[in-house]
Amino acid sequence: MSTPTITNVSSCTTTACAFNDGGCNAYAITVGGENAAACGTFTTLDIRAGISDAHSEVGACHRLDCTHNKDLMCAADSISIVGESAMCADYNAR
């Protein structure tokens, strides 16, 4: 098995997420969701959290039906998280 590349979260427009403070401040996110590819790290709290200078990455992808999923890792160059429901804009069904 080859070593997977690390996929960056290039942007996040989900302003309701506690990890979004001018961009994703989570160290890593998980892409999951049952009916659609969504950020599993999304959380709504009354604080802003995470690392202020984080270069967020996809830590894992649980969407086996995505063409970018290689051994539960994201193989896309980068992804964007969009909308108030934190959807992965780069999800591409097989």
Please, could you describe this protein's structure?
This protein is mainly beta and 94 residues long. It has one domain. It contains no helices and 8 strands. The strands form 3 sheets. It has a 3-stranded mixed beta sheet with strand order 1-7-8, with no helix packed on it. A 3-stranded mixed beta sheet has the order 3-2-4, with no helix packed on it. The two termini are 21 Å apart. 34% of the residues are buried. InterPro entries: DUF1540. This is DUF1540 domain-containing protein.
| Oligomer type | single chain
Number of helices: 0
Task: Give the overall average pLDDT.
Answer: 93
Helix- and strand-based class? Answer: mainly beta
Outline the biggest β-sheet: 3 strands, mixed
**Overall spatial form:** globular
Q: How many structural units, i.e. domains? A: 1
Low-confidence segments: none
Q: What is the succession of H and E elements?
A: EEEEEEEE
Main-sheet strand order equals 1-7-8
Helical residues, percent: under 10%
Number of strands: 8
Termini separation comes to: 21 Å
Q: What percentage of the residues does DSSP assign to strands (E)?
A: 25-35%
Rg (CA only): 12 Å
InterPro entries: DUF1540
Pfam families: DUF1540
Domain DUF1540: 12-42, 64-84
Organism: Corynebacterium occultum
